[in-house]
Amino acid sequence: MRFATLALLAATRAAGTKSSLGPAALAPQQQRDAAIDALRHHVNEEVEQRHLRDLLEDEARCNACTAEACGLYLDFARQKVTVHTIDLLINVARACNVEEKRDAMFRGEVMNPTENRSVRHVSLRATRGDPYAIEEAQDTLDRVLDFARAVRSRHVRGSSGEALVDVVAIGIGGSSLGPACVHEALASEYASEADGRRLRFIANVDPVETEMALRDLDPASTLVIVISKTFTTKETMLNAALVKTWLGEQYESHMCAVTAAAEKARAFGCERIFGFGDYVGGRYSVWSPVGCLPLALQYGVRPVRELLRGARAMDLHFREAPLSENLPVLLALVGFLNAFIYERDCRAVLPYARALSLFPRYVQQLEMESNGKGVDVEGNALTEPAGEVVFGEAGTPGQHSFYQLLHQGLRVVPCEFLGVCQGDGENHDELFRNFCAQADALALGDDGGGDNHRRCPGDRPSLSLMLDRVDAFHVGALLALYEHRTAAQGWLYGVNSFDQFGVELGKRLAGLIESGDAATASTRALLARYRAKRVARMEALAAGGGGASE
Amino acid sequence: MRFATLALLAATRAAGTKSSLGPAALAPQQQRDAAIDALRHHVNEEVEQRHLRDLLEDEARCNACTAEACGLYLDFARQKVTVHTIDLLINVARACNVEEKRDAMFRGEVMNPTENRSVRHVSLRATRGDPYAIEEAQDTLDRVLDFARAVRSRHVRGSSGEALVDVVAIGIGGSSLGPACVHEALASEYASEADGRRLRFIANVDPVETEMALRDLDPASTLVIVISKTFTTKETMLNAALVKTWLGEQYESHMCAVTAAAEKARAFGCERIFGFGDYVGGRYSVWSPVGCLPLALQYGVRPVRELLRGARAMDLHFREAPLSENLPVLLALVGFLNAFIYERDCRAVLPYARALSLFPRYVQQLEMESNGKGVDVEGNALTEPAGEVVFGEAGTPGQHSFYQLLHQGLRVVPCEFLGVCQGDGENHDELFRNFCAQADALALGDDGGGDNHRRCPGDRPSLSLMLDRVDAFHVGALLALYEHRTAAQGWLYGVNSFDQFGVELGKRLAGLIESGDAATASTRALLARYRAKRVARMEALAAGGGGASE
């Protein structure tokens, strides 16, 4: 704590509060600055120069770099930290009032001040007795699960009497990535529950997406879910119109909606409507009917209940565990350390599990949309970047793709490896060995036997997160872990993780193009070429040609 | 050219070559340094401070920032360049001998000196008359296409007489990403050619990958292709063993191989073997039987011929077009400018086409594996990073995911937007409008009506690349464009883009774990937990339990 105390003293003096020496005397911003300065000073002086090869030899330190909850085991011994660094990181969390903000979020206070909203996705996985449960959300969940049960048991059928065995979910962004990620994650574990059923997602406004999703489906046995909070999302409404045409009049009643705009959904022709409140942001909505409806239709009620139970277990852990053992807080602190102190732009999320192959994209949205901000929660311009570029692929395929740069390139990319205990046979053992070996290779490096072309410098940080297995419970806990980590990291950055105003400008400029008002000469030239090529194509088709490519 | 000349003069003097003033008098490294210094000085002094909003108002400059070849149209007006910057970039290309290296590559010289290999993927799409064609490669292609024709026409059938309508391709890295990317790209355009046929890829050693690929296939009608240059790739051989078991003795003859190790393939039990030379690297191998065999089986001979024809057209363009109009060189220069001069760590590849949804991952491997190096081609440690972190998703879904950070975060991520002229209806028009609008939004920004939370700073570089359509010809041209761009950018960095020694250490450490020699205490703890959890699971199963998640 030496440096922390010195920095606090210095900050106290600078603030002119002569007589009071305790942190309590500092304004919140000064407390944060002092805690970060202390951390930065310590890292520069005592950690940065130490190779991970050396840090990893201290077994007591390695043991201190582990934590466990809800069947998830975290090992961050391969981060550039000493035991003292962890203390200083936790001081930063305290100085940023992470605990107070967490508690305020659970109490339903306005955590998204720019939109004057509370942030209550945790209520979606609460049980009725929980203090932060919301009656209305519980009722909606019951309706969702009852409906799914009725469809799966064939009590509810299509308009010509056929069983509704296929589901098409139309939605984009948060209305697609979370549900698609969980759908993929559960496909092997719950294969028998999904037997004879198919679930497809349509997100992209490119009509090829709809074409590919529908081409082997039959409207008579297909249920369509249109997912849009406002029921005005341009892509979703254009795709819903295509799918409605495909259904034809006979099956128009096969459409239901997940939306907060029930009137609009009814006007569009959706029969059944499931609502969700404006206290749930899109990227935190997989626990609402956005995710629960398609997932319950595909896998049944039990896996959805387990998913929610896993998330709730992580909520309890997040609320109750001390910061030094709190998985979401530890992940946030490690992320903050790499991004803010070590100034790494990117982070790789690398699940060694085919079932989690969409998880990197889920995290990509969650974090980049939440924390990719340029101003703090008060609207002051940030002086140092918040948010990281998150990318990743499932291992082992990633190893044969972009890992070359991770091992030998000069750009250091902190990695998050996810591994799974349960799995079959020699293939899964090989998978797990690689999950361990890649982390060691990044940390330890190797001199390449004196050949510089083969040399790996090592000293590259990673963390390892192990799931007992990829079932609905652990998937729920994993997603909730990353949600809370994202929020906590946002509190460390001092940003509002719950708005996303940055996406509005592009929508507006697309609207201007539609009304003939392109913003630049370059865009006018692109549009002219677009139109000319289409006219040429029409003429070629009319002349009986068509397929020629040049 | 003012600064370039000055810098050259300075470098000449520093080198002590008193009397000679021309660039020819400089050693290659000095020429490169001088050209880069001139570029850097110009950018710092004349471009960096100018907002893209202003640069885009100069229509003459915008026109100078376009080029076109093979049905691909490039607009890089939204890069932080003036017309003079382009001249200086081309000086850098000349100083790095990009033209000489390109010509040497086509002549078949050793461009991969660390492995003492020539780099001849261009020969795979040559026609027999081309100077760089290789007889053996042409013969192999003929055999591949003949075999595909025979399978598709049902002259070749499975061992019980059934038509072989499904294909499973087992391979990882370059043996998977290129073929899978093209498979996805052609799925809509050539849907009728693929009618009744399925093509699946197995890359991940996770047994779930094989389980998911095979679960609705019938061994009697499935052809299996095992793809591995050495036939020792651990993941591929483990997966091939699983699939061989699935085929059963009756259908063992359904396996063929793409490999340079014919003996090993035969010993494994593969009947038909298609070879490729060591002059083709994995990530450049989609044009070999690695890609042509599964693609010809799925789509027939004509699309594969078109794919090769498109790539060959780009080869001719790359060989012959002057640098200032040369698409691969221009892309490489823009990439180099952003990564090396503006020091951007990442680049986003954003195709506004569902068909190109795997293209970002293809480029991710191609570039990060090729140029993610820490030493130059001579083995000297680089002082500035080579290679960028490449990531991306198809638009418009990406807009609803990570674009928030692109627009408002403080980390600037150069973007490459891909658009397509051909497409159907209002949905495709909306797609194209977004392709244009996002580039404008990044460049122009907006003050958010005085609300800092809504403010987008703009001045963020992007380029726009338009394809006439997503057919095999244009996909071939596009992939070849990025191949050559990657090689050219590697020559600008001064690295060997054709080896990948950085991936060896991880494999070695995985092998050590297998033989009981884990490298760190942390890994030993992870393995202990892995084993304990599996034992507990076995015991639970034996006791008749099983599914409990906690």
From TrEMBL, chains A, B:
Tell me the GO BP annotations in alphabetical order: gluconeogenesis; glucose 6-phosphate metabolic process; glycolytic process
Pfam families, per the entry: PGI (PF00342)
Q: Which InterPro entries match?
A: G6P_Isomerase, G6P_Isomerase_C, Phosphoglucose_isomerase_CS, SIS_dom_sf, SIS_PGI_1, SIS_PGI_2
Tell me which GO cellular component terms the UniProt record holds: cytosol
EC number(s) reported in the record:
5.3.1.9
Quickly give the catalysed reaction.
alpha-D-glucose 6-phosphate = beta-D-fructose 6-phosphate
| Keywords for this protein | Gluconeogenesis, Glycolysis, Isomerase
Which EC class is the enzyme in? isomerase
The protein's GO terms of the molecular function aspect are: carbohydrate derivative binding; glucose-6-phosphate isomerase activity; monosaccharide binding
Q: In which pathway does it act?
A: Carbohydrate degradation; glycolysis; D-glyceraldehyde 3-phosphate and glycerone phosphate from D-glucose: step 2/4
Record Gene3D superfamilies: 1.10.1390.10, Glucose-6-phosphate isomerase like protein, domain 1 (3.40.50.10490)
Q: Which family does it belong to?
A: Belongs to the GPI family.
Q: By what name is this protein known? A: Glucose-6-phosphate isomerase
